[in-house]
């Protein structure tokens, strides 16, 4: 039996609202509160209050435990933040070093291309002339190499 009031007195007239177990023939009918029903309603409300108090106490205990771990969590978070900042700095340093090495490699590649160009020019110059290193030396003469 469920009604609009939160507490009832003996001999109060109430309208039965019911629940899913209340037979439909009783829903909407008027009833008179008897002493046993008034006691039962009062007991029900007291049990509900006790359950609510117990639930609130449990919630309070859990919140107190959470608060007890909060300083440790904050300390860990601070340590992690410091590590993140350190890793960012290391990353920036490595990026800078990478850029420097990349520019050095580019410079070396340019120097290599320049040297290859010089070698090609020298080969082309030497290839167009008949040039003999032994014969151009003052110690040897062309006649020394002639076979009779």
From TrEMBL:
Coiled coil segments of this chain: 46-111
PANTHER family: CAP-GLY DOMAIN LINKER
Coiled coil in keyword set: yes
Family matches, as Pfam families: PUB62-63_C
Residue ranges occupied by any PUB 62/63 C-terminal domain in the UniProt entry: 8-53
Name the UniProt record assigns to this protein: Uncharacterized protein LOC104787576
Keywords: Coiled coil
Keyword field contains Coiled coil: yes
